[in-house]
């Protein structure tokens, strides 16, 4: 039923569908929400954050057009669920989280699932050190009012960046940027709702 729901909503990439089926989503939600882990809805997690609904995870992953040799940057680790999905489809994943509590919990879950190609980094995803990158793919899982140039600059030629862009409160548009030899191509995809991307590392939690 889980895979069928995703197919009905337009997900057609077989590798993405298989990965969504294989990654145990119930391990990434709070115990009280485990009965509803596979419903197509976002769920609350610690630190006021959320785990995105399965369709959004699958859709963003499909739009990245991942290959096994790709190096991927994720901004906003959250529960670690999106990183676990990425790990099955890409070569290396660096995921950045501003809340220590979330980063530590995600790291433990990913290790339990043998996602050894994922590095969880506590840091400010909006202000990364200059020596990090470049990447073949970048995925942002929190709402940005605009995409920072320092993220776009980390894309390899042929690279894809996908992020929810719009007001922090309300509806955003999922935007896909592709770096070509001639510059950046921008495409607007679907409307989404994400928690805001905030600067800095959280002082607590």
From TrEMBL:
Query: According to the UniProt entry, what is the EC number of this protein?
Result: 2.1.1.77
Where does the Ribosomal RNA adenine methylase transferase N-terminal domain start and stop, copy by copy?
56-181
Q: Where is the active site?
A: 52
Q: Which Gene3D superfamilies match?
A: Vaccinia Virus protein VP39
UniProt GO molecular function: protein-L-isoaspartate (D-aspartate) O-methyltransferase activity; rRNA (adenine-N6,N6-)-dimethyltransferase activity
- What Pfam families does the record tag this protein with? PCMT
Q: Looking at its record, which EC class is this enzyme?
A: transferase
Kindly give the InterPro entries that the UniProt entry links to this protein. Answer: PCMT (IPR000682), rRNA_Ade_methylase_Trfase_N (IPR020598), SAM-dependent_MTases_sf (IPR029063)
Q: What are the entry keywords? A: Cytoplasm, Methyltransferase, S-adenosyl-L-methionine, Transferase
Biological process terms from the Gene Ontology for this record are: protein repair
Q: What does this protein do?
A: Catalyzes the methyl esterification of L-isoaspartyl residues in peptides and proteins that result from spontaneous decomposition of normal L-aspartyl and L-asparaginyl residues. It plays a role in the repair and/or degradation of damaged proteins.
Q: What is this protein called?
A: Protein-L-isoaspartate O-methyltransferase
Organism of derivation: Bradyrhizobium nitroreducens
Q: What is the lineage of its organism?
A: Bacteria, Pseudomonadati, Pseudomonadota, Alphaproteobacteria, Hyphomicrobiales
């Amino acid at each position: 039923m889980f895979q069928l729901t995703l197919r009905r909503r337009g997900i057609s990439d077989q590798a993405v569908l298989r990965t969504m089926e294989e990654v145990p989503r119930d391990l990434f939600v709070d115990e009280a929400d485990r009965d509803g882990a596979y419903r197509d809805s976002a769920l609350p997690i610690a630190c006021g954050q959320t785990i995105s609904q399965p369709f959004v995870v699958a859709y963003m992953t499909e739009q990245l057009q991942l290959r096994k040799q790709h190096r991927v940057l994720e901004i906003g680790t959250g529960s670690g669920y999106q990183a676990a999905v990425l790990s099955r489809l890409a070569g290396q994943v660096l995921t950045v989280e501003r809340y220590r509590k979330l980063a530590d919990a995600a790291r433990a879950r990913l290790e339990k699932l043998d996602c050894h190609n994922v590095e969880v980094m506590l840091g400010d995803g909006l202000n990364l050190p200059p020596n990090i990158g470049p990447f073949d793919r970048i995925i942002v899982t929190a709402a940005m009012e605009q995409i920072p140039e320092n993220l776009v600059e980390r894309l390899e030629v042929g690279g894809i960046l996908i992020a929810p862009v719009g007001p922090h409160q309300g509806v955003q548009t999922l935007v896909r940027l592709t770096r070509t030899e001639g510059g950046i191509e921008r495409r607007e995809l679907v409307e989404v709702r994400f928690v805001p991307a905030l600067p800095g590392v959280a002082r607590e939690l």
